[in-house]
């Protein structure tokens, strides 16, 4: 190979490396955006071995202490989005034009929360306000305990899936041992606890199956009443094939474990 060709290869390689470094610097130095999904410090840590905790009270405390900070962080994020949406509503009501950045964020939110993209922006924001909202910590913790057998299921231990979430792309998760013949779903696997919790909460906030939960929450807010786990559990009839029995079990778990949650 000629020296000139070698030099050209070196220059090209250096140029590529410079582009990578500059892009990395730009990404690391930019201000966080309102849409940046929070990843907590503990998110990537291995799931504690709850199986080894024999004392029931200690296991409950360890389980709730592990998950609670994550749920609270995701709720803070949802509240920040909610306040942002309300700010956009006020701007539009005053006849102000949204900036390009705000328009792009609305497009992202509309897609993320499955809102009609052809609807008027007023209607989009109103629908978003019903969907982008907190889930009571007690409800999330009760579901996590119920769906993961208190963190001992292999889906929770190996894939941070405490919520029994499914996925439908081959290789996206774990093939359940008792999957119905002909079914193609898998139990989702997540890279960290933050992504798993965010996905679960987004699922509750946007899926048609949980419209009743969102209606209950909206009604409570309209009447300035507390948004509680026991109340919102009524809207989870479709989360399990057990229906009302599942709802009643969640409500009983919330009441019984109130001191730990």
Automatic annotation (TrEMBL):
Pfam families: Glucosaminidase. InterPro entries: Bax-like, MGlyc_endo_b_GlcNAc-like_dom. GO terms for molecular function: amidase activity. Residues 116-247 form the Mannosyl-glycoprotein endo-beta-N-acetylglucosamidase-like domain. The chain crosses the membrane at residues 7-27. Keywords: Membrane, Transmembrane, Transmembrane helix. SMART domains: LYZ2 (SM00047). PANTHER family: PROTEIN BAX. This is Mannosyl-glycoprotein endo-beta-N-acetylglucosamidase.
